[in-house]
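Model it.
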Amino acid sequence: MQYLYKIRTYHLEPESTHTFRSGSRYQILFVIRGSCQLYAAGKKWICHSSDIILLKPEQSQTLAPSSPKQSCSLLCVSIPIESLAALSDATCDLVQHFEFAPYGVSVICAEIKSVMLIRNMITKLDTLNEEALKIGTELYEKSLFTTFLVLFLRTCVQSDQVHQFHQKKVLIIDDVFQYISHHLTEDLSLKTLEREFFVSGEHISREFKKSTGITLHSYITRSRIDLSKKYLLQGIPVRDVCQLCGFSSYNHFFKVFKKECGITPMMYYKKKRI
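Modeled.
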């Protein structure tokens, strides 16, 4: 049943390149020795033995050894779309799933255990014809290859979830900045942010400090003080400024302003109006 797939090993010498063209098939590439580099999704990737590269039909990718003094070897599995259709069933449409793989990632960065298991399956399939024992070979080959495809897809999903988790942490901070800017005069407690972002307040606070170097509370306070300065210079009464900037009380505003600026709100107004 060799028509289901084709397996080939490529050796890239130092300072050489090879362009893989998928044609009408899917190509799954594994780094089996050394490391290689490629450019995808606007960034440079260095791929090691724990990485998998997927080319969809009609795509191409140029790979080169990551070191000018070392070679690398890659294992390429070519899979026709017809094979995916033939191995699909009512519970799993492999054609549809492969259309979306590898989801949000250009290079599939997976756990080494999963990659090694997948690679061992391919190695077994590649040497199956050399085995002396022939009982059930066709059924075994079909079952093993189907398992390989499903495990590969599951690895894609796991890798994408990790990728999205890391992306989400960055996006959350950007969104928090924007939310604070638009709701500076409103309640910005951790409970409010929890309801808005569906993430624990402790997580938001921790990631905010990690990304900015200051606490979330300090940032909100400083932003409100900056806004209060603008209102004070417009001649708005101090007690009104307190409410406009989201402070809980006049006394709280007075203490925070003096702590941040070294002078009272009224002193600031008089100093800046001179």
